[in-house]
Description:
Blueprint: H1 4-23, H2 25-32, E1 39-42, H3 49-55, E2 61-63, E3 78-81, H4 89-100, E4 104-108, H5 111-119, E5 124-126, E6 134-137, E7 139-140, E8 159-162, E9 169-171, E10 178-182, H6 184-190, E11 194-201, E12 204-209, H7 229-235, H8 250-274
Parallel strand pairs: 1-2, 1-3, 3-4, 4-12
Antiparallel strand pairs: 5-9, 6-8, 7-10, 10-11, 11-12
Amino acid sequence: MKDQRTRAYAAGAKIARERHQREAPMDAEALRRVTASDIVVVEGCYDHVQAVLEALEMPHTRLADAQLDRVHLRPEQLLVINCPGNISPGAIVRVRDFVAAGGSLFTTDWALRNVIEPAFANTIAYNERRTADDVVRIEIADADNPFLAGVIDPGEEPLWWLEGSSYPIRVLDTDRVKVLVRSSELESKYGEAPVAVHFTYGRGEVFHMISHYYLQRTELRTARHQQSAASYAEAKGVDLVDVDTRGLAVGDVESAASSARLLTNVIARKKRRDD
């Protein structure tokens, strides 16, 4: 039997895909046009965004971090750099030029210090207060932002896992940087509320998230969280008959579905804009 997180993401991804088809058919059509060259993933030893893409059955190309020094990047691509983002100074310049030309960049956790700070100075920064291995409740910060459509529905309480030594995000440029997802619990514990942020640079854009996008664990804090995953899927109008949900609860699948939907929103809008 596949491990619990793999199965949770299989369920969450199916929910995200089917809801996209119903709620945003033009986005769903754009997702069907995605090819492996559209999404370039720089593998990291800590985070694994590619595992979410696999659950979504989304084609993509993987690179080792050293390959970023010589690969040709095109403005119509989405570049994902997994934590820790240990890329060379030359690659930093290539990433900055890629975004300025219209590319989209998606980074996680330690890439804040290793990629974002040197490439996009004075936008966001690490606040120098590492987190514990923790789980915090997250909230939508900008309900009207199209990247957040269907990510968290009313009454939901998804939780976000913080890897031990995650880097809290301090917003430096409050005019340019938009906080998409926040956490009051994160702020009270570690000094900063942002969980996911977005800003433009040149003709392109940057997304950054604290901790790892592939969530390794969650918590079942409430009675609702402890209900069956099937009950959550049913509420979303999705049949999980072909997904192994044994032992999975609402709390497991809700977080996976939220992160899967955010990623598909980002990919779909990029594809629609650049096709």
